[in-house]
Please model this.
Amino acid sequence: MTDTAPRPTLEAVAARAGVSRATASRVVNGGDGVREPLVARVRRAVEELGYVPNQAARSLVTKRHDAVAVVIAEPEARVFADPFFALQLRGISKELTAHDNQLVLLLIEGRDDHARVGRYLAGGHVDGALVFSLHLDDPLPGLIQHAGVPTVFGGRPGWSDGHSEALYVDCDNREGAREAVRHLTALGRTRIAHITGPLDQTSAADRLDGYRDMMADADPRLVVESDFTPAGGERAMRELLERRPDLDAVFAANDLTAAGALRVLRESGRRVPEDVAVIGFDDVLPVAEQTEPPLTTVRQDIEEMGRLMARLLLRRLGHRGVAEDAEGAPSSVVLPTTLVRRASA
Model:
């Protein structure tokens, strides 16, 4: 048996700092109205004693939990297999950690999970939510609105049910797709196929629109819908080769899809880029660098998008150190894309 030293109390902090318990509580729990010299004394006492604030008591004072829900509308197997999500979560985590907020990860495995997530958000466990990978028929936006939780979305919202003022962070998917096809046409390619993502997501729909902007007269058989996965890319590429074996280029809606397409092209005896040039979207490393050949792709700064989502939410919540460095109310952000040239096109 070993004795455990008692945890320091708020009363001990107040005594060490020479202030009242109420003053120590306001400083420790983020309240206002305490003169700076007293704040310094209390903080010094906290450090010397190793005092850890009680989160429940702190929430009563600040009306905040210092916790943010990150809701990904995809099943676990998809989230942990796609490096896109890891990059976005890393950006979110870095920003939340820098402002002493906790990340609570919620995944949607099936339709029954929507009600569970809605109940959690409405239960007052978190201060706000970051939500991405939504599909057009997803009930989450309505549940979030009902819960009254401040929210920032990853990706341009595609619904039209009163969420027109929703805050979001996205990249310029349409222009990125235009740039990809523009590059392929500059290489002299004329039979350019497009493997889309799931078209109930705005990112995939915008990339298809960008392709069509540049290929208005293209054979409809050159477009196949897929699902942002390598297996989906393989299936779509086989279908394209059956429809149009004379195709000379492929623009894939993401890098994982492009990786699957490259495997099928190699199996079919097509040389890349000599016979078929291939471009992806995302510039997810190491995927884009480890395909054979290395993948030319449209880069979006995924980690920065995650960071900006968290920053927008913290600004909306009025978090200290975030709102003070920007003017006016937070607004949605659309980041530019760039073409990264490697060996596949």
The longest strand covers residues 67-72. Residues 231 and 239 are 13 Å apart (CA to CA). The radius of gyration is 25 Å. The chain has a mean pLDDT of 90.
